[in-house]
Design goal:
alpha/beta, Rossmann fold, 324 residues, five-stranded parallel sheet, globular, 12% strand, 14 helices
Length: 324
């Protein structure tokens, strides 16, 4: 159970339409390719080669973006989370996979990548775990954990510009914007907002606390966007652990479950005897979503917003379509 909780938190703290291939030959593609970022998303100075042909992606959210930008064939290595993700089939078979917390610098350098995309999670221990890669003259671009939808869109634009697919990246962010506008229009007509608890991992007797999303997260922003009230949205900590007493006192109307490890997670939640008086349990308003998609800060969190919105307010969102 402890490993499952850590895995969920790691995935959160990190990061399809048919699109023209990465670095296309059209005029717009050339324009995007010419505007290479001079700083990564952490503000570090970087120099990106003019022609990016080999990429190492050390965050699943980045890998998913690259795949949708048409760059899957340029990914020569990835992190282990990307390796067992739902989009891993889009990658070349048997490419090397590295631990994002302890990457094999020597092996990465041997691949001679043009750019290595990293996640802020890799630096959480205070050590630069890619120091040897940088010393070898390879461009290492860090993307901190996104805290908002705007952060996710900025990450998308940065990745697109870095690999010469900026215009394609902006097509995707435009789709995100259109969906957000549509959802805002629907949410504005919801007069009685339901309170929601998001469960990242089903509690057990050994680990009774519930890890969820608090203030300053894109997840909390999404719950607000669709017209619900996150019961942990007033907590000044991104990933709080709620006790049984917290949940009973907050008494959520709806429970959304993003646990991808527990078989039949919905019934597992409904079977928690101590929660039997919670409104969501009494009304059987407990719904499962694709927790992996919600955990990765990329365009597919919009699909998660759709899943949650249609589960909580099925009538209000009946005319809205899944964006990706």
């Amino acid at each position: 159970m402890k490993k499952r909780v850590i895995s969920c938190l790691l995935a959160v703290c990190l990061s399809v339409v048919c699109l023209v291939g990465c670095g296309g030959t059209g005029g717009a593609g050339k324009s995007a390719a010419a505007a290479k970022p001079e700083q990564d998303r952490s503000g570090n100075a970087i120099t990106i080669p003019a022609d990016v042909k080999a990429i190492v992606s050390m965050a699943p959210s980045v890998t998913e973006v690259l795949v949708d930008l048409g760059c899957a064939d340029k990914i020569v290595a990835c992190d282990t989370y990307s390796g067992f993700s739902s989009f891993a089939a889009s990658l070349k078979q048997d490419i090397p996979q590295f631990d994002m917390m302890a990457p094999d610098n020597e092996a990465i350098v041997a691949l001679k990548p043009d750019i290595v995309f990293t996640t802020g999670m890799s630096y959480s221990g205070g050590e630069d775990v890619y120091a040897a890669v940088k010393s070898a003259g390879i461009c290492v671009a860090d993307i901190p954990s996104s805290a908002s939808i705007d952060d996710i869109k900025a990450d998308m634009a940065f990745i697109g510009d870095a690999v010469g697919a900026g215009d394609k990246a902006r097509e995707i962010t435009a789709q995100m914007d259109a969906f957000v506008d549509e959802v805002k229009g629907v949410a504005g007509g919801i007069s009685e907002k339901k309170s929601v608890l998001y469960v990242m991992s089903v509690p057990t007797p050994d680990y009774p606390d519930v890890y969820t999303c608090g203030k300053g997260t894109y997840m909390d922003e999404i719950f607000t966007l669709i017209g619900t009230e996150n019961i942990a949205g007033d907590i000044d900590y991104q990933w709080p652990a709620l006790s049984e007493e917290d949940i009973l006192s907050k008494n959520p109307d709806v429970i959304i479950v993003g646990d991808t490890y527990t078989p039949d997670a919905v019934n597992a939640i409904l079977s928690i005897d101590a929660w039997k008086e919670v409104t969501a349990i009494r009304d059987k308003a407990v719904y499962a979503i694709d927790g992996d998609a919600f955990n990765q800060p990329d365009q597919y969190v919009m699909n998660s917003a759709y899943e949650i919105a249609t589960a909580v307010y099925p009538d209000a969102y009946a005319g809205v379509k899944k964006p990706f």
